Amino acid sequence: MFKTIKEALSFIESQRVKRSFEDFQKIVDRYHFNVNLKNVIHVAGTNGKGSTVTFIKDLLMTQGYHVGTFTSPYIIKHNERIAVDGKPISDLDLLRLINQLYPIIEKEHLSMFEIDTLIMLSYFNELDLDYHVIECGIGGLNDKTNVIQSKIAVITNIGYDHQFMLGNTLLDIACHKAGIIKERVPLFTTEKNQEILTYFQKVCKEKQSTFYHVEIPDSHHYPYPISFKENDYLLYLPSYQVDNLLLALHVVSSLIELKRGDIESVIEHFIWPCRFERFGSLYLDGAHNINGIMALIQTIKERNLEDVGIVFSSLIDKDGTKMLELLKNYDVMLADFEDERSQGGHISYQEAISIMKEKHKNVVVTGSLHFVSTVRQYVISA
């Protein structure tokens, strides 16, 4: 049992040994966790999951609905993973639930993500929420969140990430993501690859699930024009948020009626840290895989950002070499940060940022969301 939240979270974040999905499902069943939450929207995909979850949550909240969200990783504080109406679970509730679940955690030797999933289920079952928007950690089929029963399945896109777990081809990865499609549960996706779309359609047919393909306009002019149900909007966010917003709009409009003013309000007030987030001449973007880096480069070009230097660091399970190859036209400095999984350079990120600010008009920090969130905390506290 833990006396402080700091002590409890230090323990949780040290638990890295994972088990199979089947074994975790047995634990969920053994201890009678209720996985039938009301109105679950389950979100998978390589990139854009967090933003899509936030757009869905914000759109539902404009109509007065209470929405629980489960996301990862966190930017500043572990509590962010489990939130209600955008407010992270309190230290008091989190500590209470960790202690409540500790006998199970200890007996079953649960990993951090498994613990968080059980805390999420316990917390949301205590509350009378209208909707629950749950983000997959990795993949979908064997992701520990897949113990839930969903109302809608959402797959943002398919790209190369976590190949050591999901497979080496896009179709292999798509097979894992499609694992969240349940019987008679509709699927919404913005994926563009026709082979993958055909596969998704096949799975939906087998599951008797309706397939919705959300088509994305080809626009490269900032601010980005968006049309939805005969209304036009402008998006003053990175270009990849066009996909995430339109996906969220189609998902939510299948559930409730959205008004133009509500959509405009969500667009205007949307905040998602570490997604091309600006602090003066410093930009933070958690482009943690190949598709993310490609989207970052597109955003830099479309914003006409001049004289850009890059501070980069990634985790050992990412393809840092290929990401760096994509950034070859920029001045890139490899940096290190305090994480045992870092594959950064031999210079601290603080020093790297200082050097690049002297050399360039604009500096972009990228390569890993964990890295970028660490830099964000440093920038805010400086």
TrEMBL record:
Q: Which domain of life is it from?
A: Bacteria
Q: Where are the transmembrane segments?
A: none
Q: What is an example of a GO molecular function annotated in this UniProt entry?
A: ATP binding
Q: Which UniProt keywords apply?
A: ATP-binding, Ligase, Magnesium, Metal-binding, Nucleotide-binding
Q: Record keywords: Ligase included?
A: yes
**Ranges of residues in domain Mur ligase central:** 43-185
Q: Which family does it belong to?
A: Belongs to the folylpolyglutamate synthase family.
This chain's protein is named Mur ligase central domain-containing protein
The protein's organism comes out as Faecalibacillus faecis
